[in-house]
Here is the input.
Amino acid sequence: MSAHSPHILFVNPWIHDFAAFDFWARPLGLLQLAAMVRSHGMSVSYIDCLNRFHPKDMQPSKKRYRHGRGPYLKTKISKPKALQSTTRQYSRYGILPDWLIQDLKSLEQPDVIMLTSFMTYWYPGVQETIACIRSVFKEVPIVLGGIYVRLCLDHAKTYMDADYFEIGQGEASIFSIIEQLTGFKATIDIDVTNLDTLPYPAWDLQSSIPFIPLLTTRGCPFRCSYCASGFLEPNIRRHSIAHVLDEILFWHQAYGVCDFVFYDDALLYQSETYAVPLFEKIIQKQLPIRFHTPNAIHIREITPKIAFLMFKAGFKNLRMGLETTDFEHRIDQKLTYNEFEQAVQYLKQAGFKRDDMGAYLMIGLPGQKKETIIESIDQVSNSGIQPILAYYTPIPHTKLWAEAVGCSPFDISNEPLFTNNTLFPCQKNGLDWQILYEYKQHAGKGLNVENAH
Ligand code: B12
Here is the structure.
């Protein structure tokens, strides 16, 4: 075991799915770890299989989507055995395999390869990425972490050709993993319990930075039965307001970034002492920047002041976590009808237009009635904001999982592919195009292209 400072390669894997679009999707966790490793004297490389700006891509999509989003390169591939009965086309999303091979061969052999994973049902993309890596670097140990591994550990250990599986948050283990695999002992100068001691995620390793994801807070005060955030991030930890402001200023001034995307599960939590002073400081800077909340903000926290400050600070794509307007039968305790109506009023009074505001409506939940969904879509449309259809995906370690397993016509507990939300795995007959078309018809009355999933 040599003690020279090792070379660590970080890889963001391909997506295999029926549909995929870059709605501000970036591997924040992986690049957070890359930044930590780099700031501790090790050389770092990064390959993004989802890179929409790869230098070899001679026909990048001409269509320009606003604020940094856009389509991935798409290559038709054969479906996994489990999905053979579906009629839809299945594709690899991301760079061509030859480009990955050439990028790998252009690197000095790394000492360790760190791979992330995201949606549970995207695991075949991870498998293909590992196979490609192994074809170039046969002996190099591969460490696999991320959301799929953490939600489906036994499946990952059975079906993933990795040498080490990280089941937790990598900040606490990354240096000991590297020491174990290379003998290199880093002098650690960060305190993982204090988020402000972490370096900014290494977004500069990307070939292009069309936007910057921000994660001011980890964790969520709510424990909604369909969401795994409580399992993935049991405690609430926050960056200081000063740290978040400096991070925004850094990427704007150093790289000209104008679009910032909050990945928080609870951005408006305790807003009086956090979001309010943060937004006020952002406004004072008077920068030509925009903010987006694709991961939904909590409607109950939207007061006239918050609405005003968000408008002034440059919030553009506001997404709210409504889930349903069937308030009597809500499966979470985070909202009443009055709070929803009031919030929409406050946002309109603050200056937000229909195109800026959308409310996620969950469709495909166990036992969910078609009428309830259509009623919710119409109510949201009539309230003057966009109804955005969020297809439910059953997730292990959530309160709703057992009921989902019980009502699904698919073997979701043994095959994560069946948790794919576009299969409607908790509907008696799975995906019903006619019903989905009806929902989209209803929603379309105010739906703009970006959400036509
Ligand atoms: C931000 C986010 C998004 C973003 C995009 C994020 C992205 N990177 O692509 C947006 C808003 C686009 C999004 C969309 C969706 N999302 Co989402 N999302 C999240 C969220 C809130 C945070 C993920 C994140 O960045 N975490 C922060 C980083 C720091 O954590 P991390 O990535 O886990 O990394 C840490 C560890 O895992 C580990 N680690 C990670 N990689 C590696 C690698 C190595 C080598 C090591 C050692 C360690 C390690 O260390 C890291 C640092 O601590 C999670 C919930 C959560 N709290 O995790 C849901 C979550 C992943 N999303 C989920 C869902 C359902 C969706 C949607 C389907 C919702 C919908 N119905 O439309 C869509 C699908 C989008 C699509 N493309 O198809 C589910 C997953 C479901 C599943 N079956 O897997 C989650 C778990 C939330 C939930 N409902 O429970 N999402």
